[in-house]
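Regression test attached.
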Amino acid sequence: MRPFRPFRPSRSWALALLLALSAAAHPVRAAGLVYVLNSGDATIQVLDAETRAERRRIPVLREVHHLSLTPDGRLLMVGDSGANEMLFIDPGTGEVLRREALSNPYHLGFSPDGQILTITSLRRDQVDIYRWTGEALELVKRLNMPDMPSHLAYSPDGKVVYVTLQGTGNIAAVSLETLEPLWSLDVGPEPAGIIWHNGRLLVGIMGSDHIAVIDPETRSVERTITIARGAHALFPAPNGGPIYVTSRVDSRITLLDPQTLAVTRSWKIPGGPDCISIDPQGRLWVTLRWQGRIGIVDPETGRMETQRVGRSPHGILYAGSGGAAGDRPAAPAP
Amino acid sequence: MLDALRDAWDGLNGWIFETLVQPALYAAGLMEWAEDAFDWINFALFGLLQVVIIYAVCRPLEAWQPVEPRADRRSIRTDILYTLLTRLGLLPLIAFVAFSSLGARLSGLVAESGWVPPTLETLFPILREWPLLALGVYIVVLDFGEYWRHRFQHMFGWWWALHAIHHAQRQMTFWTDDRNHILDDVIGAVWFGGIALLIGVPPGQFPIVVVVLRLAEAMSHANVRLSFGRVGERLLVSPRFHRLHHGVLGSGESGRNFAVLLPVWDWIFGTADFRRDVFPRTGDPDLPEEMATGGWLRQQAVGLRRMGAALFGRS
């Protein structure tokens, strides 16, 4: 008969137990991939969100700036503006599925019903409206616009798309029913990012230090909110969280209360913060345009870790491990 | 090591932009040019690096085995001024940025027709997967373009009037590479940038292509008794190969050895001279003296006057 031996955990048992407890303490982990568009060296970097190791580097032809998931989350569309090309990528793996010739895609975003994709062409002064069949894009209207159409946002009913015009300091409203411009409004120098929020349009005024709050009904600037110099783009956190606003001159991210739009906090983020994607832990993945880095910001403390990527990183997207559906950022295409 | 260098480079570029340039753009209401300005700083820094690399490579070679003594230091100083104006100046950048925008607008017009222009990679898909091969192809294509630009500089009277400034130098050193009329530089930048855009050189590779060609050009002007041997002379342009182009017999339409990087173009088009023992004196006695020894401004004025005369038929 074998003598009784009390249970003495080995080191490996202890390690396994520790890992299990650790996992239980952090039930939501940032698994998945992060896509970084390096506009200055013509690559898309695909990072493991957990380890931040580079999983893939996709060469593109010229300049990638912005990206958008398709409405079903199955495809990631990345515009290579200088190359006149749209890349269709499997967001779960980073595999390039196909490339399509398409005129100068700079910023892009799907309408709320997922039927329309609007693409701005910053350098060509054009706005293209495409019908999305679920598989393919069909150009339905090309509008010649005043100087430098930049970012875009939709009204919740999907009847109007609003485009910022950096060169003229306006926003333009375009009807998606008639496919014709409706009106334009002077909002301030070099407007960039734009979102729809609680019946208003919020516009980052890059040539100044504020956000313009626009009432689309009265077509007027209702008020301005001072942020920091070079106010650029806006990213609402999911589930009623704060609105994050990047400022490229003062290099800050400012947090706005989503109800009152009051400034609640402001973090110094060196390197020219530009686009933001938010992962399920609420962390902010930020492109630092002037330093060739991305920052990962803890939303509680504002503490940032940085990581080297390619030159002039612009668009960024966290895509969850099971495809991107469900983990999609709440903001329009970043 | 490379990552650390790149990090330091981007850090310096970013620091200059964030600290000095962007606030100035903001104050001047020019923020829509921020991204172009960021590229400009990179270009100017890159120009500085080119000068340092070229000096580090070429100066020891010239000291080691010069073809001729450095007798005319004033003339060399003029060439140094040319180099600094070109490498650190605005010209190449203006051309690339301006023609990048113009190219985009032209393709915007083309887009109206529904046709999207192809690039080199869309014509040869293998280049997508082999970036180094693509880089090699870009260099070969651009070098071919440079060969023909150089031929045209010697072929057309008005263009030769400008390019003659380059050939007037009797004290040729690696600094002579940039000794060009400003109008000639503009045409060259348009030519080079236009071809780069046409074949779709990615922005990240454009500076590498530029530095390869610039280093080759500077080296080929060096005052060094150096030949690359029977085979090497046919693969890469050597100081010997290019010095022959700068000899008296190389001037004007009857010139030889026009290639910048690859002598194969001269070989193919019957303009090569591979004699390895010939290191002629440089310069052209038919050109006005001020083109050889005048200051920068004087040379520019004379070049412009001669071009006008060539165009309007007055000598």
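Expected vs. actual: identical. Chain A touches chain B through 46 residues (CB under 8 Å).
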